[in-house]
Amino acid sequence: MYMRNTTSQRYINPMTDFGFKKIFGEKDIMIAFLTDLLNPESPIEDIEFLDKDIVAESFEMRGVIYDLRCRTADGAEFIVEMQNRYQSNFNDRIVFYLSRSFSTQERKGDHDWNYELCPVYGIFFLNFRMNGLQQRARRTIQLQVVETGEVFSTKLKAFTFELADFKGKPLEYPKEKLDYWFYNLANMETMTTNLPFQNEQPIFNKIGSIAELANMTAEEISKYHVNIDTVRTARCVMRYEREEGRAEGRAEGMTEGIEIGMQRGVAKGREEGKAEGRAEGERLKQIQIAKNLKGLNMSISQIVLATGLSEEEISAL
After folding, report:
1. Alpha helix locations (H) across the chain?
2. What is the per-residue pLDDT across 161-202, written as a single tens digit (0 to 9) for each?
3. What is the phi/psi pair of residue 306, to 5°?
């Protein structure tokens, strides 16, 4: 296996699966982040890391797998995810994740249960721009009354953080305490000095120690390299398949464009045919990527993240 040269690299990439879970899998780090995010009236004394899998209740239903999932002492649940690539229907996926966590709170067989729910929060670190929304580094999403703007419920919230806004920016860029987290996450892999903003948030000292390659065991370094190589391989495959899909799309688009052009005009038909061809080529590309990644023994959940295909589609390949 190819081993990445990390002699000039001080910290791991926190946007990899290994790096993200190594950092935020630490209880005191997660508590510090949640405190800066929520600014609660009383301190968050403790959290409990939960099983990341929510198993479907029946064969027809779909289970979900999170990167991290935790609960505070007062029952509030947090779903924490790092997403490196945009996926189709990502907004719907956020709603689905939060809904499934709410559904697990049902007290079956308890006739006295009055539907009181504990809060569920989704926290999504994004290494891409969300489509169809105004560009924002940070978003807070919750239920509200459209006509008045009143908050309908505070028990369902989703937070999205687009880390691209912080990548490569000067140290003066972050203006708020929460932004210090995003700046460090976005730029950590290329940093050669101690993590900044430790005066503002002392936990960054521990994060730097945990993320420093020199402090890791040989086994951890090996796992990190495997993670990096898996991501690199997936990107190479996707890059190749993207080019192949474009070529197929152009060829099919030209053929379909000529046929449609006979009815709607040659110029307009050619453009519509190309668009249809590209769309079909994109889907063929995703299917081929999934096949190649299955050949690399990647898990179905990882292939779902890489391609946007459903688990059922991938299992059927």
Report:
1. 17-24, 27-38, 90-103, 177-187, 203-211, 218-264, 266-295, 300-307, 311-315
2. 999 899 999 999 988 999 999 999 999 999 999 999 999 999
3. -75, -30
What's this model's pTM, rounded to 2 decimal places?
0.67
Contacts of 229 (CB under 8 A, 6+ apart): 1, 2, 4
Asked whether the beta carbons of 284 and 313 are under 8 A apart, the reply is no
Q: What Cα–Cα distance (Å) separates residue 15 from each residue in 23, 58, 221, 286?
A: 10, 33, 16, 23
Tell me the pairing of strands 77-83 and 53-54.
unpaired
What's phi and psi for 196, nearest 5 deg? -75, 175
Comparing CA positions, the residue from 75, 70, 82 lying closest to residue 29 is 70
Q: How far apart are CA 294 and CA 94, in angstroms?
A: 26
User: 287, 317 in Cβ contact below 8 A?
Assistant: yes
pLDDT in tens, 121-171: 999 999 888 888 888 999 999 999 999 999 999 999 999 999 989 999 999
pLDDT value, residue 254: 62
